[in-house]
Write a structure and sequence with these properties.
Layout: E1 3-6, H1 10-23, E2 30-32, H2 35-42, E3 50-54, E4 56-57, E5 60-61, H3 62-72, E6 77-82, H4 88-93, E7 98-101, H5 106-121, E8 126-131, E9 134-139, E10 143-149, E11 152-157, E12 162-165, H6 169-173, E13 180-184, E14 187-190, E15 194-197, E16 201-204, E17 208-211, H7 217-235
Parallel strand pairs: 1-2, 1-3, 3-6, 6-7
Antiparallel strand pairs: 4-5, 8-9, 10-11, 10-14, 11-12, 13-14, 15-16, 16-17
Helix pairs in contact: 1-5, 2-3
Length: 245
């Protein structure tokens, strides 16, 4: 397990490490005094499993650092550590796993890791995409569509970002789950984001309209109908799904 502690106060770091060892004497953590050093280390593999991040550091905002961390690896859990509850709402808006008030105790660390392992048990499916020279972990339910462009694929995410992946659409499609459906030769959509399956056009959220393959329209519609039927059936006996952290 890869654990990080980011706090500009070395005494607070030492206290935190002692609390961590009080939870598990065999666990160790990488320590950082600023966000830039943390982000540089986060780009190495494997990704951090969990990061304990001070919100208040000189010339840095922990909320912004957390957003960058999730851009590097959506699978990294962030726990904010601070002396004030002032930014608690902002912390959870970036899907923080927990929010610890200083001084950090073994009891607090134990509660965090109980949540961490419960979240991992319910982990959302994700994929690692290589964008340029960097690797990004993206949850599959964040992906709206895959669109072929020459020898690359444009990946549209729910937050509006477009990631360009240099690999054939067929290969990337194999990495998706059963929520994804090819509606024409060059486009694969996430059926969870379809708002209307028309006769000739598939409409996604944000009024994204996509043409359907003429000869496969009946098969495409049938696959989508089966998907909707299965989801309605599952809602009668809902299963809990994990969230980000």
């Amino acid at each position: 397990m890869r654990i990080a502690i980011c706090d500009d106060d070395l005494r607070e770091q030492e206290q935190f490490v002692n609390a961590l060892r009080g939870w598990d004497s065999e666990k160790s953590a990488e320590t950082f005094i600023d966000g830039n050093a943390l982000l540089e280390a986060a780009r190495k593999t494997p990704s951090f499993d969990i990061v304990f991040l001070d919100i208040y550091m000189p010339n840095e905002n922990g909320i912004d650092i957390a957003k960058e961390l999730h851009g590097i690896s959506a699978d990294t859990c962030v726990v904010f550590v601070t002396v004030s509850r002032e930014h608690a709402v902002d912390a959870f808006s970036v899907h923080a796993l927990h929010y610890l008030i200083k001084p950090v105790t073994t009891e607090g660390v134990t509660e965090v890791f109980n949540r961490f392992f419960e979240t991992r048990r319910k982990r959302r499916e994700s994929i690692v995409l290589t964008i340029g020279t960097q690797r990004h972990t993206v949850f599959l339910d964040q992906i709206m569509l895959l669109e072929n462009e020459n020898h690359a694929v444009n990946v549209l995410l729910t937050d509006g970002r477009r990631l360009k992946v240099w690999m054939p659409l067929n290969e990337l499609e194999k990495k998706m789950n059963a929520d994804f459906l090819r509606i024409n030769r060059g486009i694969v959509v996430n059926m969870a984001h379809i708002v209307n399956m028309g006769t000739d056009v598939c409409v996604l959220k944000n009024d994204i309209r996509l043409p359907m393959a003429v000869r496969q329209k009946a098969a495409i519609r049938a696959a989508y109908d089966d998907y909707v039927f299965d989801r309605l059936a599952n809602q009668k006996s809902p299963k809990k799904r994990g969230g980000g952290c």
